[in-house]
């Protein structure tokens, strides 16, 4: 085994880090393609950062995000928060009383744990449904939560969305939509209406999901409710800080639904392209991936003598992709214990810029290099640990 | 009255904003001096921002802040949080049980409201003392909080600090120090020991107070306790985001106690210099100020005919300081209802760069211009509303 324990994983990660720093500080950032899908965007000009640092800068960006936030989410007032989880906490602190009921409807279980935790914190009773036939509103319900799309990009049917909101309106209970990725996925890809337009009173989305913003949450809603949530956010330090707001603002300005549609269709084209050469790549919601087992089978298909472990193959391949082709994938840079599946996320900022043929060639070249070295353990060690 | 209502205040602020943008986008940022003392720092190179945007960037800065955070605060482990208030919330969520007691000792009342709010949230009983003779530890106490220095820079005597910690140790109760500005004020200016070295188990400081960091909180403590607080911070979205951590890191690297000592002695020199010409400037903890009444008396001393209100004088003077001399003070840029006292904070980044003679001349020149225009209401209006 080349990568045999946590210490080896850290050594591998350190090596990847050195290579990435070399790209950024000595070569060209444009030769580096972060396709992990887990990196936050931070778009800001030097002049914007200068303005940010003055007393007035934060206020300027807060005013501007009102405009661009409403274009993205509709609603009467925008509130940027530190994370989607902190927006959920602020909302529940503002609207949910002790011993009252919170009812959550979602496309499929499990629910995001932050909702349940915040309910526990205020001693509210939490109920969840993923079946409209079982869904019912209890007495003494203070808040109805709808999840627009899950982590795995399973989206809620628009008719179910409307049905839940209609029942909530009948009971005069505010509706809060957790539309983390849904605010883009539901509307841009699946042509659903924006959650506020469907009747939601409060909506939150994650600015790092399917758009090029920083990790953080952006809320909209009726002015009265947003004001109530904002008070709690400011009291407990849950609001987004000015540099994050600036980066959110620029990501909103840059956001173009066409890019997302392209990324989604790109994935379909790309898997076809990959299948001309490989048999073990699979689709993900926003790109493609090859598992540890898949990569092993792919190498085996080439009748190659393999003198390293299956998991090592993934680490070696991801390090070749990084060093030779500038492609960052998670196994190269991950902390100990992370999955060794190699994912290529095409909805990322770097992914959008990459021509599919170019990426395909990078993947083939790296794979050929992998075939060249897998019978040579020393050489593989060199690749994984020494930049 | 020139600035007669909220709408006028907003118009004034818009005008100031246009002037500031003009400095930044068309002139030279270095000709602008933000002396409000309320602006957050955001130091980051383009290459650091490039690295930040990759999957690995955040981890790099989180690792580096361990090193520089410990140099600043000591302790076993560092945790950067979104705000001092959110660090306080995370701590209380982690350590304080329902119905237990939290005891707060501080140099003088009132306590920062975030401590009391967080105690209420977890249904703990909150007690506070500013007199060591009355201070006593109740049964069933889960946490002792010490405030190292207040908003007004009143610091806690080191012997009292030690006494409270010693009593807490006797009862085996963890001690959490809110050292928002104290982590620098107490240690650098008053030669006290760092809170962790005095025996605190957890410490928090504000990275925008008396140092050039972004708004945010930096915590240290024993590894076990920080790990407990970190779990709560991550669960509820209370942690600092990577761009903020990067800016904290650079502010920590840049922090130099000498600068702070200089700023504090600069204030003494500066008030002497001002008193050669003026009689109504006063010292603040980190600079000087002139109140509305003070400015009026100062103008009156020059036997000038004044055709505007007392408060208008402050607005006009602050706008002249901004337009003619690039000095940003709060009355020029404030939202409706803010105080019209003009403060010059010398501990700010721009303040540190300013030579006292240069600043003195800027203040005199602007004051002379003020004397020139105060009998001409039309001209004053022009200054306040039209850049």
Layout: helices, strands, pairs:
Two copies of one chain form a homodimer.
Chain A (H helix, E strand, L loop, with lengths): L5 H21 L6 E2 L11 H7 L4 H17 L3 E5 L2 H12 L5 E5 L7 H9 L3 E5 L11 E7 L10 H13 L4 E4 L3 H8 L12 E5 L10 E5 L1 H14 L5 H13 L2 H18 L7 E3 L2 E4 L1 H10 L8 H16 L1 E2 L1 H4 L8 E4 L3 H5 L2 H18 L3 H9 L2
Count of individual helical segments of chain A = 16
- Overall shape of chain A: globular
Task: Report the biggest beta sheet of chain A as strand number plus sense, adding barrel if it closes.
Answer: 7 strands, mixed
Low-confidence stretches of chain A: none
Radius of gyration of chain A: 23 Å
Distance from N terminus to C terminus of chain A (CA atoms, Å) equals 19 Å
Strand element count of chain A: 12
The assembly state of the depicted protein chains is: homodimer
Q: What's the rounded overall pLDDT mean of chain A?
A: 94
The proportion of strand residues of chain A reads: 5-15%
Structural class computed from helices and strand pairing of chain A: alpha/beta
Name the helicity range of chain A: 40-55%
Series of secondary-structure elements of chain A, N-terminal to C-terminal = HEHHEHEHEEHEHEEHHHEEHHEHEHHH
Biggest β-sheet: strands ordered side by side in the sheet of chain A = 2-8-7-6-5-3-4
User: Biggest interface: chains and residue counts?
Assistant: A-B, 65 and 65 residues
